[in-house]
Each structure stands twice: as structure tokens, then as C-alpha cells.
Amino acid sequence: MNDTAKTIVITGAGSGFGALAARSLARAGHTVYAAMRDTTGRNADRVADARAYASAYGVDLRTVELDVLSQESVDAATATVLAEAGGLDVIVHNAGHMVTGPTEAFTPEELMAVYDTNVLGTQRVNRAVLPHLRAQRHGLVLWIGSTSSRGGTPPYLAPYFAAKAAMDSLAVSYAAELARFGIETSIVVPGSFTTGTNHFVTGGHPSERTVVPAYEERYAGLMDQVALRLAELAPADADVSQVADAIVAVVNAPYGTRPFRVHVDPVNDGSEEVSRVADRIRAEFLTRIGLADLLAPGVAPS
Ligand code: NDP
Q: Which InterPro entries would you find in this protein's record (predicted)?
């Protein structure tokens, strides 16, 4: 992969980690597409902010309409980027949505909606961009995971945790399947940042009105307690920009040296420890079955 300026698309980049990373990557000299949905409606102000930032800093920060819930939208965004920028080097799977509440209270359809955004959204994007990355024989797929999929798991966040675990699992399998096309994979794993993004503010809830009260009798105020205790655990210097910095560091690392997984977890919920074992087992097993070359592009077949 060319280690100079890259063309990068970040999904869900109107707020939070995505917006910060888009700006940091643009300042680092890359052409960055901050992809957002509803760019002419609800997110029009975010588009204007990005434009203002680009002109204030003289950087190549652009926006593109992209709703991860729609294959049509994802395909159109990909076509726009390829036509405008003439290529694409890095895709950042960042769009996500959290819900909170007792697990039983979510209808299957509500659970499906959480998977749709956090899991199936990445598949829509991959099916649009990977043919291009495979054809050019280089690229980076950077997934924004979550420590929740392997670290300490507080209750009332199950649909989101399950979706992020599914996304992580997809990322791990994809990594091996893309390596022989020269495509690298990195998973940036943030811990809980209760401020500085819209993650907790915009979190959804189950719509039904019978199960929740039954749980409230035994677990009164639990959700607020969980959020509060997570916030209390965070050290004073925990800053969301650490996640953007980690994303920049991965993108800027030379081809072949990018880490498979990077944790940014000021709370230290234990995910890093579990992932270290899981990723080691994966590497050992692929090696045992003679597929060590799938661990990263450029690794010699065993
Ligand atoms: P934000 O809510 O600020 O960012 C999420 C972004 O995703 C929003 O801008 C949202 O846009 C966008 N999005 C949601 N649905 C769609 C969609 N259908 N199409 C396109 N964009 C969509 O929170 P964060 O910055 O915290 O979240 C970014 C990523 O980080 C997520 O994947 C999240 O799971 C992950 N993460 C967050 C942690 C935290 O504690 N903050 C911890 C670990 C991981 P819109 O406003 O239009 O809905």
C-alpha cells in the first residue's frame, strides 16, 4: 500500500469518534470523507461544520451521504468517492447505535434493528468497497469495535453488546479472507467514553411498557447506576480524542506494520486481556493448520 496520503471513508462521521477522527486524519494530510446519513436534513449542520473546518485548516475534509441501513445509499456513496477522489484506500466502520434497557423488553424487531446498524451496516459497506480494494490489491479495513464484546459486561446493554461482539467476530474472519488480496485489518477497540460523543445521549430504549416496569421493581434505576459507575471509573484525563489519535496512528503506520487490534480503554474493563488470549489462539491455530499467511498480508505461507 502506498504509505503517503490516503483516501479514507469513515461511516457515521457526523459526531463523536468519527467526526474527531475525520478531522485528525485530514490534518494528517489525508483526503477524508466524513460519511453521514441525512446530509441535507438533520445532519446538514454537521456537513456545514465539516466544510468550515476544511477551509479553516486548509485540509481535504469532505462529506458524503451514506446511510449504512441502505445498500443503495452505500453503493451511491462508494461510487461518488471513487469518481471524485479517483480511489479509496481505507474504510473505517464507525457508524453505530446503542440501546439500553432490560434485555427481555426488546422485541425481536428492535434487536434486529440494533444488528442492522451495527453489524449488517458493515456488510453493506464491505460489499460496496471490497471489490475495489481487492482489485487494487491493497487497502485497510479499520473496524471500531468495543471493549464490551470481551470485557466486563454491565447489564441492560445486551442488544448493543451482542451486536458489537458479532461485528468483532465478522472483522476477525474477514481479516483472514482479505489478507491474500493485500488488504490489512485493524480493530480499534474503545472502552466506555460516557461523554464527548453522542453514544450515551442518543441511546435507544425498548418501546414496550410492561416488561420494563417489572424489572424496575427489582432493578430500580439500574441503567442510570451503570452509566454513573462507568463514568466514575473513567480517569480524569480520559479524552475521546485518544480514540481519534489511535485511528490516525493505525492509518499512518507503514503497510505491513499495522496492529491487528488496538485498545483505547481508560476504564480498563479487562477486554484487552481477553483479546490478547483470543488473538494469540487465532494466530496459533491458523499457523497449526498451515494458514499463517492469512494472519496479515505479506506473511509467508507456512
Ligand atoms: P456517536 O453517537 O457520537 O456516533 C455514532 C455515529 O453513527 C453518529 O454520528 C450516527 O449518526 C451514526 N449512525 C448511526 N446510524 C447510522 C446509519 N444508519 N448510517 C450512518 N451513520 C449512522 O457515538 P460514538 O462516537 O461513541 O460511536 C462511534 C463508534 O464507537 C460506534 O461504532 C460505537 O459502537 C463505538 N464505541 C463507542 C463507545 C463509547 O463509549 N462512546 C465505546 C466503544 C465503542 P446520526 O446522528 O445520523 O444517527
A: NAD(P)-bd_dom_sf, SDR_fam, SDR_oxidoreductase
Ligand 1 mutation target, pool 199, 229, 272, most atoms within 8 A of CB: 199
Q: What digits encode the pLDDT tens for the residues 216-264?
A: 999 999 988 988 888 888 888 889 999 999 999 999 999 999 999 999 9
Give the up-direction half-sphere exposure of residue 166: CA atoms within 13 A in the CB hemisphere.
Answer: 19
CA-nearest residue, atom 34 of ligand 1:
96
Q: What is the mean pLDDT of the chain?
A: 95
Q: 196 CA distance to ligand 1 centroid (A)?
A: 12
Q: In angstroms, what is the span from residue 95 Cα to ligand 1's centroid?
A: 5
Residue type, 171: A
Q: Find out whether the beta carbon of 9 lies less than 6 Å from any atom of ligand 1.
A: no
* Residue-range domains of the chain with CATH: 7-295 (3.40.50.720)
Whether 215 is catalytic is: no
Q: pTM, whole model, 2 decimals?
A: 0.97
**159 Cβ inside 6 Å of ligand 1:** no
Q: 75: CA distance to ligand 1 center in Å? A: 20
Give distance in angstroms: CA of 91 to centre of ligand 1.
15
